[in-house]
Amino acid sequence: MSSALAIASVTAVLRDLLINGLIDQDLTPSLGDVKVTALPPDRIVTGDKEQSQLNLFLYQVSPNPGWRNVGLPSRDGQGQSIAAPPLAVDLHYLLSAYGAQDFHAEILLGYAMQLLHETPVLGREAIRTALGAPGLVSGGSGLPATLAALSTSALADQIEQIKIAPQTLNTEETSKLWTALQARYRASAAYHISVVLIDSRQRVRAPLPVLRRGEADRGVEATANANLPTIDELRLPHSQSSALIDDEMTLLVQHVEGFSTVRFNQKRLSTSFEIAKADVQEADGELVVPLNISGTSPEGLAIPPWVPGSYSVAVIVDHENKRFSSNEWNFSLAPRITNIAPPNPVHANGSGNVTLTITCNPPIKLARVDDTTTRFDQKVELLLGRRFPRPISPEPPPTNLPPPAPQPAATDTLIFVFPVTNEDLGDYLPRLRVDEVEMPLVDWTKTPPEFDSSHKVTIA
What we know:
mainly beta; Coagulation Factor XIII, Chain A, domain 1; 14% helix
């Protein structure tokens, strides 16, 4: 692949191609000294001091349609990049001719177009020669600084060869282009150069190769009539959109005879835990899983309590010393407010700020910063009318304990401090939102359903 210098290298190679082509035609007796430049047209001297010259100008760079969907950037579950596809671009050039006398411009343009027509592909050796690659042209010595830099672009080594094709511009497009260039119009031809592949400098992970396939490296087994465990449906109480702690989740399943555990994955925190069969109620084609039981990790270790967020659930079946997993179903576990202090009405302090202390269930995951500091490991917001405050940082652990002081894995106490004005006075039904999972505010036990006003906040 090429480096970021590839675009300039293409211009340099095309310019060198035109220079060598005009030298081979020996136009000096008829046209005098002819220059080949790669400048913006508005910098070309025109009028009485106009010289016979060709100018190659890159006026547009566009994504290559063939490569733009190849090797899309991809990341793993932790957000780390696992692929770095190249930047694939096409180059659009304007080749214009200038003449000191009658017909000079037409002659130059004719020779240049003939040369590009006869060179539909830029060969790799031609690119190396034009850029003066070290070891190919006098060892790369004596090159101008710019050309010496371009010789390191690795343009000749990219997997795709560079093609040259004429591009049609109608009268309107030509007029708009020259107007944008703010230069005097001259006879010109447009060319499409494809494709330049610029390699990414981003480094990706290089995981170890697969060591074994399955237990004891048994390899892949295929069975035509295999009855694999399947979850057909996930049901929550009252058909609510999110589960709450202490809810019972019902899984409609097939082929789970002899299942051993129900596995949960917390997606954002990348944690996994399992609930044993003894804690699950099994009925005809149904598994009822209580969402208030602490599970264990796949390694048998105790895990922290449930936290709000997005989860997936699967049923694990052990059969003949093999472990099978069902398909996964996604669901959200929403936070629930259990208490709000101070009691209503709530008043602002002398600085115009209101302080609310909210207790929630399940608790919010904490992360350790250092031996004396913790932070929230989840995004927490309080939805209160037009206000969306976030909690202040959790309190530090006790300092009278020997370091390193133990720190809680989660907290159920959130303190919100936010300013209020006269426009904010009134009654509110507060809601917590954790990792984009919002607390449900509807009481489905009543008919018709009503808003749950048990934790109404009055700001006075």
